[in-house]
Write a structure and sequence with these properties.
Layout (H helix, E strand, L loop, with lengths): L4 H6 L3 H16 L7 E8 L5 H10 L4 E5 L6 H5 L3 E2 L6 H5 L6 H8 L18 H20 L25 E2 L26 H13 L3 E4 L2 E7 L7 E8 L2 E13 L8 H7 L21 H8 L4 E2 L2 H4 L6 E2 L3 E2 L17 H4 L4 E2 L7 E3 L43 H5 L14 E5 H7 L15 E4 L2 H7 L11 H17 L19 E5 L3 E2 L5 E2 L6 E3 L5 E7 L12 H17 L3
Parallel strand pairs: 1-2, 1-8, 2-5, 8-20
Antiparallel strand pairs: 3-4, 6-7, 7-8, 9-18, 10-17, 11-12, 13-14, 14-16, 15-16, 19-20
Helix pairs in contact: 3-8, 3-17, 6-7, 7-17, 15-16
The chain binds flavin-adenine dinucleotide.
Length: 584
């Protein structure tokens, strides 16, 4: 214990002395831990939050270890699109004449009146303290990233990647790959793309280099298992228990531990606290197989008393938390992530998937072989530009100016088959050889995953139904059902009208063999609720008290509904600074 009891009592610090005695008592109850390593700050996770946190803490004079569960750094951030709507009046905005400020950013991200076509509110439930901290640190984070090797595409900020209604000025900049190899292909970008395309490779790789250069230690394949807190749930967080390929280690953090583990969508039990529908079959997490979002940070922190925060933001039906797959016939069908055979991760991803250009070319059916919705239906939206027209910041009238759009395929896909069970089960895209020709698909590996059970073909529709066997198909698909579904759909095409689900003028019959069934189950993407934090990114417990020595940020933190990299990098920037300032 670093406090001096005599000094405190002599100085009349009764409350502080009381706290000290409690801490001592807590420490006395804690079994002695055999520490294998010791450092000032332990950062758990090497993605969008962990990398900036580690650099900031190291530059503030702390010794830093980054623990990474995977054999590689970068997390979801590396596979991301690199669209970065940090604003607040940064140098790129200034260069291109965009007037922005921390106050405007704060006002935008707490604008209660931004409402999606479903009625769901983007920012209404954001925690003002957390947003204020973000708004004040967004521009400094932008400059910090630039100063540590991140190259932005040199063009005016735009709206691509989550910056429109509710973001009243242009804020999105794009991170260029420069010469870093793209994890999706294994090769660097082409000369034409190196300064023009947008990718998370250009974010994580230079930050990793910068961190190593200043002495941050990276321990790969070191999975944090739990946190050590003095007295169980009463004292400081003093370190972490780690698994390194079967070897258990304890690493002491003299100052602080930063949870930057990236969220919870990959943990079935955890995600079902928010949405009971999300059972095992939703196995196509967007950033996998590069890294998982297994809720390990949230669970470890909750084990030592942490609270969750802003849980509406996770259940609200907006944003990219759950998405319609853009690629079918593979497990990982997130529309903007295509694993290619040159990638070091390809063996785990197993297939690139078939990009659906026109949903007129397929029908989608449930486990029982029945259609359930208009295939051209969309997914939840976020910050929908011109979704409210006219949009007036903070206006009570915005909700009246909304263009109502009920055309949501996702909820129908997750409805299930009426067997009393949760989860919609597998969804299959069904099509024929004519559709293959129209889409110019090559329905062979590496484009489709036959071995994994995510793609089937047959000469008749009945045979196709009988072939669909894989672990999430919890009931066999009746061949008669699929034949009837295809037959009646072909009738709708002939009549020029979808009498079941109102698909706008169904165009193509499914008639020419071979016939195909390709995995088309919703994909999980974002985590928007997690640990309760304050403006400094300190983790807060169920009674509203700070847990000393514990910080969190990014997708593992709650209270902030915003997709992706800006909030994560910014909270890493904040957490690293305050973690390093703790006394050892
Ligand atoms: C395909 C795709 C495209 C995207 N595109 C964009 C975009 O264009 N713009 C945008 O703003 N956002 C985008 N995002 C979202 C963005 O990438 C994430 O929001 C962001 O990376 C999350 O940062 P994080 O630090 O919370 O988690 P991550 O970046 O995922 O990092 C978490 C790290 O923690 C590690 N970890 C987890 N548990 C443990 C443990 N127990 N012990 C040790 N290590 C652990 C993980 O392996 C991982 O490396 C995209 C995401 C995906 C998947």
């Amino acid at each position: 214990m670093t406090l001096n009891r005599r000094k405190l009592l002599a100085g009349g610090g009764v409350a502080a002395a009381g706290a000290m005695l409690a801490a001592e008592a807590a420490q006395a109850q804690t079994p002695a831990i055999q520490w294998n390593k010791e450092v000032d700050v332990v950062v758990i996770g090497s993605g969008a939050t962990g990398l900036p946190a580690s650099i900031v803490a190291r530059e503030a004079g702390a010794s830093v270890i980054v623990l990474e569960a995977q054999p590689h750094v970068g997390g979801h951030a590396r596979v991301s699109g690199g669209n970065m709507p940090l604003g607040g009046g940064n140098s790129a905005q200034k260069k291109y004449g965009v007037e922005d400020s921390a106050d405007l950013l704060f006002r935008d991200l707490t604008d209660w009146s931004v409402v999606q076509p479903t009625g769901s509110a983007d920012y209404r439930y954001n925690d003002r303290e957390i947003i204020r901290a973000y708004a004040d640190n967004a521009a400094p984070t932008f400059e910090f990233l630039k100063a540590h090797g991140v190259v932005y595409v040199d063009k005016p900020p735009d709206r691509q990647g989550g910056s429109s209604v509710g973001n009243s000025v242009m804020r999105t900049m794009h991170v260029a790959p420069v010469d870093w190899p793209l994890i999706q292909t294994g090769a660097p970008a082409t000369p034409a793309q190196r300064l023009t395309m947008s990718t998370g490779n250009g974010l994580t790789q230079p930050l990793h280099e910068a961190a190593k250069k200043i002495g941050v230690e990276f321990l790969l394949e070191h999975r944090m298992l739990s946190l050590h807190r003095e007295g169980g749930r009463t004292g400081r967080v003093v370190g972490v228990a780690v698994d390194n390929n079967g070897t258990r280690l304890n690493i002491r953090a003299r100052k602080a531990v930063v949870v930057a583990t990236g969220g919870s969508t990959g943990n079935v039990d955890f995600r079902r606290m928010f949405d009971p529908r999300l059972t095992e079959e939703y196995c196509g997490i967007a950033g996998m197989p590069h890294s998982d979002q297994d809720a390990s940070g949230e669970i470890a922190a909750m084990d030592v008393g942490a609270s969750l925060w802003g849980t509406y933001n996770q259940t609200a039906e907006h944003g990219s938390g759950i998405t319609k797959p853009g690629r079918v016939g593979c497990q990982y069908g997130y529309v903007n992530l295509r694993w290619q055979p040159g990638s070091p991760l390809f063996a785990k991803a197993r297939a690139e998937g078939l990009r659906v250009g026109d949903w007129q070319n397929v029908i989608t059916v449930n486990m029982l072989g029945k259609r359930f919705y208009d295939e051209t239906g969309r997914q939840y939206t976020s910050n929908a530009y011109k979704g409210i027209d006219p949009y007036v910041q903070n206006s009570y009238l915005n909700a009246k100016n909304l263009r109502w759009d009920p055309n949501n395929w996702l909820n129908a896909a997750m409805q299930g088959v009426g067997d009393g069970r949760n989860g919609g089960g597998p969804i299959w895209a069904i099509f024929d050889s004519e559709a293959v020709a129209r889409e110019k698909w090559d329905v062979k590996p590496p484009n489709v995953d036959i071995e994994g059970g995510f793609f089937f073909s047959a000469d008749t529709v009945e045979e196709l139904a009988a072939k669909i066997k894989m672990k999430y198909q919890r009931v066999p698909m009746p061949a008669r059902n699929l034949a009837e579904t295809v037959g009646s759909y072909n009738g709708f095409v002939a009549q020029g009208r979808d009498y079941d689900f109102g698909k706008p003028r169904p165009l193509y019959t499914i008639a020419k063999p071979p016939f195909y069934a390709a995995w088309c189950t919703p994909v999980l993407h974002d985590t928007r609720a997690g640990l309760r934090i304050n403006a400094r990114c300190q983790v807060v417990d169920m009674k509203g008290a700070v847990i000393p020595g514990l910080y969190a940020g990014g997708e593992s933190a709650g209270g902030f509904s915003m997709h992706g990299l800006p909030r994560c990098t910014c909270q890493g920037f904040i957490a690293g600074r305050h973690a390093a300032a703790e006394s050892a």
